Amino acid sequence: MKRLGILTGGGDAPGLNAVIRAAVKTAIYDYGCEVVGIRDGYDGFIDDGGVIPLGIEEVRGILVRGGTILGAANRGNPYARKVIRDGKEVTIDVSDEIIKGIERLNLDALLVLGGDGTLHSAHELYLKGAPIIGVPKTIDNDIGGTEATFGFDTAVTTATEAIDKLHTTAEAHHRVMVLELMGRNAGFITLHAGISGGADVILIPEIPFKFEAVMAKVRQRVERGYLFSIVAVSEGAKPVSGEQVFSREGDDVYVPRLGGIGQVVGEHIEKQGFETRVTVLGHVQRGGTPTPFDRWLATRYGAAAVRLAAQGKFDRMVSLQCGKIVDISLAEAIAITKRVDIKDDAVITARGMGIVFGDETPPQPSPNSNK
Ligand code: F6P
After folding, report:
1. Predicted confidence (pLDDT) per residue in 352-371, tens digit
2. Class of domain 3-150+290-335
3. Residue 101: CB within 6 Å of ligand 1?
4. Which residue of 7, 8, 125, 335 has the lowest C-beta tally within 10 Å?
5. Residue 11 CB–ligand 1 contact under 6 Å
6. Among this protein's residues, is 40 annotated catalytic?
7. Spans of all domains in the chain
8. 154-286+341-352, CATH topology level
């Protein structure tokens, strides 16, 4: 392996720079290889100035930095790129140009750091001849075949801190605080942060909820003298007899943008006579310095991806299984998106502690409990 390319596709996630740093250092120190960065996802193969050299100097100090030094583009699907032709916006397939770009740059391997969409494109490009290795990135933690994606732990930490802060003001004002969290169609961020932050209600896409069950929990707490409640709700959660809430429709290039369910839940609670405020944490969850766990995972992923590249093991993705870094086929990774297992001990534990998921009314405390 003489020349390695790296790109970061889709939305950013804390730890992208840690992967880049580990990959560059491993490629240079271990394999004496030259490394280039492709800017703004796959777009860098097409745009002027889209390729930059990556040496030890370029990656110095980036371990702790959020974002990505290469830029990201979640409109960067090579099979659906928006361009202006004859004054009109049209969607075109630029996958052949990307294959040519890889050849032009003499890349022996290309590391693609991305989520579901980017890894789908990566597999398709491999089938057209691109020497690709995937690295699973997303705060949503929804990629199949791996126990963890980097970025998730940082997002959960940020979301948990938000719940901690909402707790104190909720208690002071006797309010219900609704916190809307990211995650698309997977409830991992909300489940983990909800349990870690001690939320009273956790609403996730995997468990459609009933407003009555949410209200029963809020009322029950007030009856027991707890005049405030914390409701953590995933952006992808939906009522049993309703739909997900979107703030923008999708098209050929953009996926539909989830957002607004927190407001719907908050308004419902307030109409029942409980003073309520809604916070949407949004992109704060994607920003900031990665946690030590995400740095540790990202570093191991970056180095392992370079080792795969050196062995010519393409169309593979690095993955965490039972604490070890292994590799699986990209086809396997993208075949099934990961969702919260509602039979898993995390959900059982939360239910057992009185946390309500909205599908069933809260259990009554035993008569000899003090509250
Ligand atoms: O996939 C990561 C994610 O942050 C989701 O949790 C969220 O729904 C989406 O990306 C937001 O995308 P954008 O940055 O395009 O608004």
Report:
1. 999 999 998 877 766 666 65
2. alpha beta
3. no
4. 335
5. yes
6. no
7. 3-150+290-335, 154-286+341-352
8. Rossmann fold (3.40.50)
